[in-house]
Structures are given as C-alpha cells and as structure tokens.
Amino acid sequence: MSTSRAERPRLVITSGEPAGIGPELCAQLLAEAPPDCELCILGDRPLLHERASLAGVAPLPDELIEHVPLAVPSVPGSLDVRNASYVLTLLDRALEGVRNGHFDAMVTAPVQKSVIAQSGVPFSGHTEYLAERCETPLPVMLLTSGTLRVALATTHLPLRRVPDAINETALLRVLRIMHADLRRWWQIDAPRIAVCGLNPHAGENGLLGEEDQLVIAPAIAAARREGIDAQGPLPADTAFVPREMARFDAYLAMYHDQGLPVLKHAAFGHAVNVTLGLPIIRTSVDHGTALTLAGTGKADVGSLRAAVDLARSLALRSGG
What we know:
This protein is an alpha/beta fold. Helices cover 39% and strands 16% of the residues. It has twelve helices and eleven strands. An eleven-stranded mixed sheet has the order 3-2-1-4-11-10-5-6-9-7-8, sandwiched between helices. Helix 7 crosses helix 8. The radius of gyration is 20 Å and the shape is globular.
C-alpha cells in the first residue's frame, strides 16, 4: 500500500447481481456513516441511482462509481441470464484493479451462481472464480464474526461428493493456508485450529465411517509435525459448544452446511466471508441476492458494512 493510502485504504466494491439487493446495499452503505476508507463502487450508474431511489436513500455520488454498463435493463427480483457477463465483468475489473495496485482490497456483493452457470460459464462461486483468475490452486473459504472463524475444507459441492473430495494432502494444504493467514491477517502468533470430523461422532472409531480415522486424523498429525496447532477430528455436534470454542481461534469444517449454520445462527447479517490463500484481500457478505427484498429498501446492510470494515483492517495490516 502506498504511503498516501496508509491510513485510508482504497477499496473496490462489486455491486453484484443487478436483480438482487447488492446495488441498493452499496447506496445504503454510503448513506449511513461512510466507512473510514476510500471507496469505488463498480456497477451500472443508472441502475445504482435507481436502486438508491427505490431504497429511499441518497443517490451514490457519481465520483464514487466506476460505470460498467448492464447488458440489458434489470428489474428488481427478476433474473436475466443476459446480464451474467456484466456480473463477471465487475469481478474481473475489481480483481485487475487490486492486482495492479490501484485498490488495496476488493469487497463483493452477492451474485446469483445459477444465472452465471446458465450463461455457459462454469461457476460455483466467487471463491473458486477468483482463485482461478489468480492461478491459486487451493482457495479457502472462511466466514468470521468477531472471534468465531469457520473455514471450509470443501465449498459448493453436493453432499454426496464431499467424502471423495476430502483427502489427506488437500486437508494439510488447507491447514497450512489457515495457519499462515491467521498469523498474517489476524496477527495470531500461534493459531489453534479445531478440525471437525466428517461423520457423526467423528466416525466413532470407524463404526460410523472410516474417513475420520483414515484421512482426517493423518492430515492433522502431519500438520502438527509442521508446527501447526491443529486438533481433532472433533465431533461436529459438540465442537462449537462454548467450552470448546474458548480453546480455539478457528475451525475447519468438512463441508458447507457443517460449519456455516453455527456461524450464521450466531451472527447472520453481520458476518464476513473471507477468501484465504489468494494473493489479494477479498471479503464478501454472508448472504445471497435476496431477490424478494430487491428494490424494497428492507435489506440489511450490516454484512456489507462488516465486509468493508474487515477489508479495511486487513489492508491496513498489509500496509504495515
């Protein structure tokens, strides 16, 4: 980060799926006490002004918008596959800006994965898309709120494919990334990582599944030999009780709906999605496009504000 931006990092926000709540959340973010950083909103300028008006907030200042035109006009709540290329252009421009140093971090409003996939572009989520663009072989999705941090060994996979996607090598690489980024971004000198088991009761000595003994435990042992304080596999149904949570700085869940319901129960609407393992800083909201709320002004800006605040904090640490 340049000296001139040392105290006020420059962040870029992609406004996301145009039929969803992303555009109006960007307007709400600035209408309520703007964050202590420089912001650039990527999106269609008329769309952003229209959604601000529908949400009943002040229009975004034009100087804060980098105009990217829609492919076709967008109606709140009505998806149009023709705008899939627009959404991807937002991501590509933001990523380019961060990688060339024009921005210090990127924050992403929600996208509609199904629409992008219907356009013919393989797309399972921001995490995987940005990792491919950055030529990062293994990104790690982590959601956080306060001291609760939950990372995922697998992300957007059908449940029946999860066991086959978990192997000792991949888990060890995830633990290495978590250890390194918890130290780099959160400045935790010796991160304590709880590793959830895959099966009920962490397999119960093989009675309820062998993956915990044959795959997860050896990965944890290998990580510990490298000086990573990983513990487990822990039965996921008791891993998040308060007594256990006090022992750890972060969790590694084996699949999306194992760890994230806990975090979202505790902090939905105010949690942040962070992509670990990338050469850039990227944060995002903890929710989807909320099509039924689009254009109503009822969407909660809390998670986007938290994502901006965390991106700013990480950028400051990076600059330090």
